[in-house]
Amino acid sequence: MSLLGKFIDGVKTLGLNVTLQSALYPLRKRFYSAKFTSPAPAGNAATTYTFAGRVLAHHQTPAAGDIGRQTLDLRCENAQVQLVLLAADLIRVRVRPNSRLEQPAHQPAEPFSYAVCTKAADWPPTPFSLHEEQDALTIRTEKLHCHIDKNPFALTFLDPDGAVICADAAGAGWRGDNVACWKRLPPDERIYGLGQKTTPLDKRGVITSMWNRDPQFYHPGDDPIYANIPFYLGLRQGRGYGIFFDHSARGRFDFGATTPGVAHFEADAGSTPDNELRYYFFYGPQLVDVLDRYTELTGRMIMPPLWALGYHQNRWSYTPDSRVREIAGEFRARHIPCEAIHLDIDYMDGFRCFTWDHSRFPDPAKLIADLHAQHYRVVTMIDPGIKVERTYWVCQEGLEKEMFCRYPDGKLFRGPVWPGDSYFPDFTSPRVRAWWGQLYQGLVDLGVDGFWNDMNEPAIISSNNDTLPDVVQHEYDGFGADHRTAHNVYGMQMARATAEGLLKLRPDERPLVITRSLWAGSQRYNMHWLGDNYSDWPSLRNTMQLVMNLGLSGIAFTGPDTGGFVGTPDGELMIRWNQMSVFTPFFRNHTVKNSADQEPWAFGQACERLCREFITLRYRLLPYIYTAFWQSAQRGLPMARPLFLQFQDDERCYDIDDEYMFGDAFLVAPIYEQGARSRRVYIPAGQWYDYWRNTITAGPQITRLDAPIHQIPLLVRAGSVVPAWPDMQYIGEKQIDTLTLHVYPGNGVSWLYQDDGRTWAFRDGAYRLTRFVCKLGARLEITREVTQPVEQIAGLDDYARIRIKLHGLAHPPAHVHVDDVQIQECKFEAENRTAILETGPFTEITVELAPE
Ligand code: GLC
Questions:
Q1: Residues facing 723 on adjacent strands
Q2: Which residue in the list 357, 466, 532, 657 is annotated as catalytic?
């Protein structure tokens, strides 16, 4: 588009004033950057890297507190190195250049990090031994060995059998303000993770940047975008490890793209306070264990309220209120389940956060109460930018209390977003976070259920999708930093402020805060959505790569704008997208301003019918999906898992990123191509049931699965017990007294997690966990074991009735016993290859299967 075309487009969307401010912003930014950036001191202009050099001395810190016993300090020619053993499979590495030791902002004994929540002193002491040879030292734990070359200093991580897991190439170095590290990258190693990356799952051959950025809209391959996380997983020959590079400053990862066989990561860490190189090394060998440890270090996913897992409907923007009511009415009238309606920025008065446009929303309290009466939840958007306007109360208060970011000379920073020039709260200040949190009081009083924090990279609307200048100052929780260091954590701290505020305002309720920008550790506070994708097939294909990458980076709860944000999908794309979104953690339909309608009924009756069917399926599967969420909150295992997470010994899974496991039971192989009515699927080892046909297939094999427009290729692992609810229009529509258990004969263990779906009572033990064990030998045995008696827990369905559906049977079972009593009524549906029986809470069911 020509410059003039862009300008006219901008005026249409943003208005003349904001378009002009946006056009001028790059000049303003350049002016302030030049004004406050001093010419680089000689050291900073360095073109070559310095390395730690020879190890001159070492000592294990004597028993000075718990962490002392786990610390090895090394004095090298050019640096101080510290290795801290946090667990038998986790080592923290710090390299502090001698040249920076005397800098006033040098690191405190325990480094400050927004990402890390389990500090060194919190890890229980780990037994280890230290062996010294002339040229080397070796730390040994029961799970990991760390070999330290003395001349020059270099690290090699090995498993206890001596197999190299990850070795330094050049190792740790620094140049100017940067810190960097080079590791060897063997030819058969795969690399995964790093947050919201639009590249294929394996990051080999990729150079990628750590800089949260609003790309405006994105396509596969665009980098960086909103949510970057400096944590990656390496996998080779069944052995998995992780590296978390704990620097919030602008960074870069290069996996063999510049130098084949070498992985390189680097950050602009010389700006205060991160003037050292710091990373954490995790060893599995199972990647699920690496994720477990990583989320122990940076925090587990906050357990969301159950309603967050339902279907959400949105557009930019439903306005005025009559349109919101109309949408709410349509879903119920058409019997399409829907849980939440989102209000995008146009509910606000001129995009002023924490206000309402009373001409379009004259009575928000009544609107929200009416939506609640129809059993909808309401989510409202809040952006970080606060309109520069002295008569606007949030601006006034923010100015009076000094909440906004400033330049080094104390002048307030301002930049254009939706309302025009805006101030930006400094969320790296605890004082600002506390203030921001209580601003939600009004929305909470109105009954708003969930909150959506957008534009928090932070994004500035300008010709080149900008952000704040590097020279803007941040409090950085008392350490002080400029925007280079604070940028990547800005969104995380905004969404944290929101979540912490809500915890004070509604202490009994689990908050739902949706954020676009993330950093390592964000999972402790919020969930995420994938931002402004396109309504096209390549974006559909890219979605699960993004979701899986985020899951491998600790951010399990995310999902796309179903149907795509920019553009208009056709009915077929809409159907395929909805089919896949049933099996994504977050399921929300959203589209851009002025686009065509994108509600499930906007594409004709066939699409509406199929969307209804699939959204209904999502609701049926909620007990299963909620259990997968619980697993994730326990151990960092994402709900949507690449095959190699479950089948790590099978190297054929390492490159597969177009199919995935959703929870323990489902293998999902979405259709990503227009017109496709079948697709190639890799089936890992074991027996699998075709969800639609109840036929059995054995893996490993590559096969072709049918995918008529009303089906998504879907397999269920043999031995699974999948709990299901009846069809519902919204959560809580029915008192559920019958739980359906879909049993897929085979050998396996399945879980059902239940709590009140709303409060924190589960933390005090108010939850029920049921374990199902399926054994298939001469007979099929299904045992059910409940961890806590029902009577003790308020708000839980007690499932007085259980309906068992036995899938994949060619003939009716010969005999069925429930707790040793023979059951006479067992319905058999030959066409569906399913036997159905009704029972109460049981301990053991045995089924004599008729011979095939
Ligand atoms: C951003 C968001 C998008 C939203 C729009 C208006 O582009 O990513 O979801 O609709 O802003 O608020």
A1: 741
A2: 532
What does the buried/exposed string (b/e) look like for 713-734 if buried means 16 or more CB atoms within 10 Å of the residue's CB? bbbbbbbbbbbbbeebbbbeee
Instruction: Say which of 449, 454, 659, 690 is annotated catalytic.
Output: 454
- Stated as kind and residue range, the H or E segment containing 626 is helix 622-635
- Residues 774 and 274: their CA atoms lie apart, in Å, by 52
Contacts of 468 (CB under 8 A, 6+ apart): 405, 413, 415, 424, 458, 460, 483, 487
| Inter-residue contact 534 to 219 (CB < 8 Å) | yes
Q: Is 297 in a helix, a strand, or coil?
A: helix
* Residue nearest atom 10 in ligand 1 by C-alpha distance: 316
Structure tokens at 22: 């946006």
Q: How many CB atoms lie within 10 A of CB 543?
A: 27
Distance CA 406, CA 410 (A): 5
Which of 346, 357, 515, 532 is the pocket-test mutation for ligand 1 (most atoms within 8 Å of CB)? Answer: 532
How far apart are the C-alpha atoms of 210 and 230, rounded to whole Å?
7
Amino acid at 479: F
Structure-token match 């994004």, residue found:
459
- CA–CA distance, 585 with 629 (Å, rounded to integer): 8
Q: What digits encode the pLDDT tens for the residues 332-376?
A: 999 999 999 999 999 999 999 999 999 999 999 999 999 999 999
Nearest Cα neighbor of 633 from 302, 407, 161 is: 302
Q: Compute the distance between CA of residue 89 and CA of residue 284 in angstroms, rounded to an integer.
A: 7
**Active-site residue, 454 included:** yes
**What is the rounded CA–CA span in Å between residue 234 and residue 191?**
5
- Rounded to the nearest whole angstrom, what is the distance from the C-alpha of residue 335 to the centroid of ligand 1? 28
Is 330 tagged catalytic?
no
pLDDT above 70 (res 102): no
Rounded alpha-carbon distances, angstroms, from residue 645 to 40, 306, 736: 46, 26, 34
CA-CA-CA-CA torsion sign (12, 571, 547, 502): positive
Predicted pLDDT at 730: 98
